[in-house]
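Ticket 4471: requesting a sanity check on a complex prediction with iron/sulfur cluster. Repro inputs:
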Amino acid sequence: MTSKNWLAQALSQALTKPLTHLVNLDQPLDFEGYVQAGGYIGATKALTQLTPKEVLAIVSDSGLKGRGGAGFPTGMKWSCVPALQEQSNQAQPSYLICNGDEMEPGTFKDRYLLEGVPQQLIEAMIIASYTISADKAFLFLRGEYQLAATRLQQAIDQAYENNWLGKNIQGTNYQLDLYLHTSAGRYICGEETALINALEGKRAIPRAKPPFPQVSGLFGKPTVVNNVETLSNLPHILKHGSQWFKDLSPHSDPGTKMYSACGQVKNPGVWELPMGVTIRELLYDYAGGMKEGVKLKGLLPGGASTDFLVEQHLDTPMDFDSIAKAGSRLGTGGLIVLDDKHCPVAMVLNLLRFFAQESCGWCTPCRDGTPWAVEILTRIEQGKGSLADMAQLADLCDFMWLGKTHCALAPGAVEPLKSAMRYFKDDFEQHIELGCCPYQSNSNEQQQESQGVQPELAKRVTAGVNQGGENDE
Ligand SMILES: Cc1cc2nc3c(=O)[nH]c(=O)nc-3n(C[C@H](O)[C@H](O)[C@H](O)COP(=O)(O)O)c2cc1C
Ligand code: SF4
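Returned structure tokens:
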């Protein structure tokens, strides 16, 4: 396809696939190409026609919720920054941090945006920084995302060359410096307060809250941390308006969402779809259904730290409220699919090993609880467990649950474990009764996987990232 045809096709999807219509993984648009494709219209509107409070009002009205996992309303988060408080008339300096740490197993949506359309994120960060009166912004990037790092640095350099960063941006009084920081590489660095500690050069452990970062964050200054996908919506909300954003989804949660699927599906990948597509549509229309010879057993709907759902949940819309009502979390929107030929105990053990390895060690329930769960699960998976072990695991889940730890890593580890014991109780008990793994005939592949979830996922990510499935319109 010629570049002219590519652009024409891309622009025809501008209103339905705002985040991804300009994605080009082979050769992302440079500054000029991005401007020709309609880039920087949103930032121009914000900086030259609107006050920060007016931008805040548009973003709040759009109903945008954070895409980093928790689904917190973006406008509400920003409104806690002192410069945007009702009574505040003068801008107080603050910081913006874009969270591009993306280390959640089974999640690779941000990478697609970071590598495929880096200019969009820079524009988005300028809009967010202007709104919260930040004169410094940081892009905290997963260290392994080296291609993204190169492309983002080029985009930042071009934004400086074209006076979208630096002093007196586009002739206004506004100034902003943007720094790319590549992480040294721990999962906990994605937790926003651990991330702030890491940026300050300290050990990456979460901070006790309050104070929340919006009030006292990086170097004690008001700081907003937002996810890559969350921020990437901003140029489009500014350009097309909040009503357009709401109309993108037939559900109460507005906008589109980056969804992905991995596991034994025919067409693993990542897609931008209206918020609230059902699990069935995502699994069968986009991910192509299960591979020949395997059946669906269960799935984690939003990355590794969400609860399993099963066949009965297939018609659940993938939005924050509906997935919560079904007993799980939308999380990152990354489906991890479990089939009937893979052992659920081994899968959960694999995930728990990851969480135990990545625990920062600050609080006892997580530091001691996650390796203890690994020890018990290993015993059960090897056929050496007992029913008392099951009871012990259930106790551990309570011990590591929300409110008992400083951050959500341990409760996140509990979610797949607790739900697996509910939905796949028979599998756990069979291990105990038989004295071995009932899935042993498939165990070669599992053993390879249990060496660590990351290498396997890395393969799936490389194979899976595409620009849309067969049915992707
Ligand atoms: C252990 C852990 C890891 C996290 N990793 C990420 C991450 O890689 N990227 C991300 O955006 N949010 C991550 N989060 C959530 C962040 O703490 C924070 O809520 C998010 O970046 C806020 O952005 P949003 O409001 O735009 O969703 C993580 C949270 C926890 C507890
Ligand atoms: S829950 Fe785990 S990762 Fe989070 S602060 Fe406690 S020990 Fe650290």
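Notes from triage: The chain has three domains: 3-247, 256-339, 344-464. Leaving this open until the requester confirms.
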